[in-house]
User: Fold this.
Amino acid sequence: MSDPRALSVLQRVFGYESFRGDQQDIVQHVIDGGDALVLMPTGGGKSLCYQVPALVREGTGVVVSPLIALMQDQVDALTELGVRAAFLNSTQEWRVAREVEQAFLAGELDLLYVAPERLMTDRCLELLERGRVALFAIDEAHCVSQWGHDFRPEYLALSMLHERWPDVPRIALTATATAATRDEIAQRLALDTARHFVASFDRPNIRYRIVEKNEVRRQLLDLIRTEHAGDSGVVYCLSRARVEETAEFLCNNGINALPYHAGLGAQVRAGNQSRFLREDGIVMVATIAFGMGIDKPDVRFVAHIDLPKSVEGYYQETGRAGRDGLPASAWLAYGLQDVVQQRRMIDESPGDEAYRRRLGQQLDAMLGLCETVECRRVRLLAYFGQTITACGNCDVCLDPPQAWDGTVAAQKVLSAVYRLQQRGQRYGAGHIIDILRGKSTERTRQHDHESLTVFGIGADLSDQAWRGVLRQLLAQGLLMVDHEGYGTLALTQDSRAVLKGERQLMLRRESEKKERSRGTQRTRAEAVDLPPEAKPLFDALRAWRGEVAKNHGVPAYVIFHDATLREIATAKPETLEDLGHISGVGARKLDAYGEDILRHVAQG
Ligand code: ADP
Ligand code: ZN
Assistant:
């Protein structure tokens, strides 16, 4: 039976007409006291799954979240909606914490956000026991997975909530989980009897593209200038140094970019994060330390300029684009050097053999995605155990790559490596390509490589094409990066079959059209759905929103989303009642801002 109170809260407090997807079932299940494990992609609408039951059930909903730096924003956003929310974490003065504790005990809080390490203190556990807990929401639940990319040891202790509060429902939520991670979450959080709600992980508004890397910073700049000028975006890099240099490069080229990585002081990080959330059009250049829990709805692109380590992490990161459902880009540039570097990092990583094997498998899956001639989205979702048909909104669908018979080319590469190995020598990709192309260099002369029978047998392909061949051989395990380091290449068990002509090898070649058509298919969202005559009102409303947000010290989207302003600008409501029907306008906001908005509408 569905509880009428749930729908009423959704409409009155949040201003939304109806639940989406599984939301209603999840909300009902938790209101009825059941445990739940919720898997929904970023932007799917997880927060309402615990916020609505917390408002319906008696007591306070306790939300466990690792994202201390975002708690203030989360609480501010709820306060704007008229929800009584607060947080407890280490950034607070004890006096403030005391007030929050008092409010909780007095039953004056609907939602209380707590960091896991704080929750586990005796003081906090006793506090919760003295008050009334409506539910426990465990956000970012994948942090409990030791194999995952965001492991937080504090999460392991959360299984005790169940023992201490057997009657309080628990709802664990995450945007990332393969079947294996999901089982791990259920097991570690003791969610044995929890109902699993697995939503579709598809994010159809995100256009996936994976391009061959050549001059990556130029390519990135190109992407931003031609498709995302003035947009908010995130650029992910593998290392701190690369973050710094890329942010500087973008700034020097007129892009409003900021760096973010764990090596920056806490204050600088918090400052940059806050600017990214509050200002329009900032490009955050970051390591993967950035982004979890950032619920900025209008991030228009996520670019990776280094190869991510796993598909799971990659999907989580790209999912931060386009939470508002409007068109957005996920763009990844990858090349030969990425494969060499990552294979090397795995070899050198601490940890046992099983751990390294696992890293290797994750990398292989990522490489498979990069080299596929199949729809990217089909591949991505298959990784999460979901089946769809070709999407029509990825580079492969829009511009299919060609497959070509690379058997002979591969044999040339492998025999070059073989000849060098026979001489007891190993080299990196660059030198091997020089030999194949017959390029005379100091090294080829010095080591007498010009007398090799393979010298110059590959003059028919360009440097770039050879790099593509080597990259794919590495990706397929037909070449390996030497254990001794330095990125030198060696044959593998599987190389022999190719060398002996027992195995045909189809390789992927980027369609040439793709390079040329870059930038013509704009993914910008601004103009979507907005008739030209509505534009002046939309702009006026945005300006008004900016003022209000500044006065309240919150990001603009906390006041209203672009989508809500767009709807107002098109529908031009004349009465408070009409305005109240617009998605995203709840009772509290109608009360606070209704008159202002109507005045703007009246003025046209
Ligand atoms: P997640 O936490 O899963 O990434 P959010 O909870 O932030 O997603 O929701 C994503 C966006 O969708 C938010 O802007 C939210 O307000 C909106 N949203 C969620 N549920 C609904 C709904 N039932 N109707 C309309 N908008 C919704
Ligand atoms: Zn596709």
